[in-house]
Specification:
Helix content is about 40%, strand content about 20%. It is α+β, with helices and mostly antiparallel strands. It has 3 domains: about 325 residues, no CATH class; about 120 residues, no CATH class; about 60 residues, Arc Repressor Mutant, subunit A, CATH 1.10.10. Helix 4 runs antiparallel to helix 5 and helix 9 packs parallel to helix 12. The relative contact order is 0.09.
Length: about 525
């Protein structure tokens, strides 16, 4: 193991082994299962009335139940259960009529009760699926099986002196008791790219459902990755011991950690030949700065937690009629919405993915523009290129943009005016920017579309006027005419610039076309 320690702490060695790992990838299959902990969007905790608001002063959102005082009795937060049920139904899980609460016994300083209220052998849901795909074709579309989704309470937060290791460790119990939905996948993922796609799709689904804000920086979505390798050897199939990777605070970290861990396990396998079952499951933490996983402890088995039914909480009964009601209330989920955008509106898979990933409100805005303008492709282009640009620059939501600046009616009218020629395409973005920015400053006195057009002096240019302008420019620039006649068509670009100076409303494409046609007809040639 000395050689491995040197490898972990050597930057040059780390780069070398990453290259080695890619060349050796065909020698093994990476098998990945993910455990995702989602903080549910409730105002209070799972078994008490303490607030779940993020950012409060440490240990100010606690009560006798949170801190494990004797004699306290938990009461289930029904809203948390309803949000969990909504998620389970959306994942097509089986929902049993009967589920119960269990105590998971273990000691840690930020778990004052000495146990966590969770679910063990009768979870609230099991056996679901989530479809994933990749627009860049890194992997084939596939269904990832969901083992179970169950409710549990969160523990507190331990704050250590990570830099020097000399200061005292501190405990913040504000998070203790926060409702979590743990979603466990089967080991169906086979690459870091698939793992990232799964997490992105799951996060998108959760935000569409409104069950969580999925803010990883605030701990609303946390991921543990279980990784091992399946290998074909001369003596048959073999698998390496499973490693659970923790401290994954971004989807990019998940990708990097899995890629690194696969290479590390293959190296250990070559050195020791240790197989699954010959060593306990290990927990390793991800050091994002160093780009390595580091051993933490051996992983407990379920028997080590001494599960037993919580005597203070009654079981939960969920009738089939309730499940049917939840299913009917889900609305259009991301996968179905992407499909509708491609089939009904003719958008590419990439465009549909971009829109859906921005959230339902932006999709609804785009669809209204498409319906009103009759041009789904133009609506998509304007939203993905211009609307998103302005939203990012101004830090606003699409709802604010709709109300304060360019409504879906305004954008649809702009698209129609450009198509009809009433607004020159060359000035369309200028018009949009004025509507999006200047009106935003004083949106209570918002101008109408026509008033903005008038204020910019935008008007349709008659074709006969364009022809006269082109003839005038050709007559004044015989050298450009000669260059074009000698095969240098790009020379006509100088005429386009002059035309724009004369009249900012002219269409550059139309000017270019007319000038080339006139030169071909002999106009402007030397006598």
């Amino acid at each position: 193991m000395i050689e491995i320690v040197w490898f972990l702490n050597s930057q040059s060695a780390k780069v070398e082994v990453r290259k080695w790992h890619k060349s050796m990838a065909e020698d093994f299959t990476t098998v990945i299962g993910l455990e995702v902990h989602v903080q549910l969007a409730t105002q209070s905790k799972l078994f008490c009335r303490c607030s779940t608001q993020f950012g409060a002063e440490p240990n100010t959102q606690t009560c006798p139940l949170c801190i494990g005082m004797p004699g306290t009795l938990p009461v289930m937060n029904r809203e948390a259960y309803d949000l969990a049920l909504k998620t389970a139904v959306a994942l097509d899980c089986e929902i049993p009529e009967f589920t119960k609460w269990d105590r998971k016994q273990y000691y840690y300083p930020d778990l004052p009760k000495g146990y966590q209220i969770s679910q063990y052998d009768l979870p609230m849901s099991s056996g679901g699926t989530l479809a994933i795909s990749d627009s860049q074709d890194q992997f084939e579309p596939k269904q990832i099986r969901i083992t179970r989704a169950h409710l549990e309470e969160d523990a507190g937060k331990s704050i250590h002196d990570e830099a020097n290791g000399k200061a005292d460790s501190e405990i913040d119990l504000n998070r203790t008791g926060t409702p979590l939905l743990e979603i466990v996948s089967e080991p169906d993922l086979r690459s870091p790219a698939e793992a990232k796609a799964y997490l992105q799709e799951l996060k998108l689904l959760l935000t569409y459902l409104g069950v969580s804000d999925c803010n990883m920086q605030e701990g609303s979505l946390r991921v543990d990755a279980n990784v091992n390798l399946h290998l074909e050897t001369d003596s048959g199939s073999a698998a390496t011991p499973i490693v659970e990777i923790k401290n994954l605070n971004s989807f990019r970290a998940v990708e990097r950690a899995i890629e690194y861990e696969a290479g590390r396990q293959y190296r250990v396998w070559q050195e020791t030949g240790q197989k699954l079952g010959e060593a306990p499951k290990q927990t390793r933490g991800w050091d994002d700065a160093a780009g390595v996983t580091r051993g933490q402890r051996s992983k407990e088995e379920s028997s080590d937690y001494r599960y037993f039914p919580d005597p203070d909480l009654v079981p939960v009964i969920t009738l089939p009629e309730q499940v049917a009601q939840v299913k009917a209330s889900l609305g259009e989920l991301p996968a179905a919405l992407r499909q509708r955008l491609t089939t009904d509106f003719g958008l590419s898979e990439y465009d549909a993915e971009v829109l859906v990933n921005q959230g339902r409100a932006l999709v609804d805005y785009t669809l209204r523009v498409a319906d009103l303008s009759g041009d789904a492709k133009s609506a998509c282009n304007w939203v993905t290129q211009e609307v998103l640009r302005v939203l990012k620059e101004q830090g606003r939501s699409i709802e604010q943009f709709q109300e304060q600046s360019v409504s879906s009616n305004d954008l649809a009218e702009l698209i129609c005016k450009v198509k009809s020629g009433e607004v020159p395409s060359a000035r369309a973005r200028e018009l949009f920017d004025v509507m999006a920015r200047e009106i935003y400053v004083s949106f209570e006195d918002k101008l109408s579309f026509e008033e903005v057009v008038k204020s910019l002096g935008i008007e349709q240019v008659d074709e006969s006027e364009l022809i006269d302008l082109c003839k005038e420019l050709l007559g004044a620039n015989p050298r450009i005419v000669a260059d074009v006649q000698n095969g240098k068509q790009q020379a006509v670009g100088a005429l386009i610039g002059q035309a724009k100076q004369r009249n900012p409303n002219v269409d550059p494409g139309q000017i270019r076309k007319l000038c080339l046609e006139l030169i071909e007809q002999g106009f402007g040639s030397a006598e």
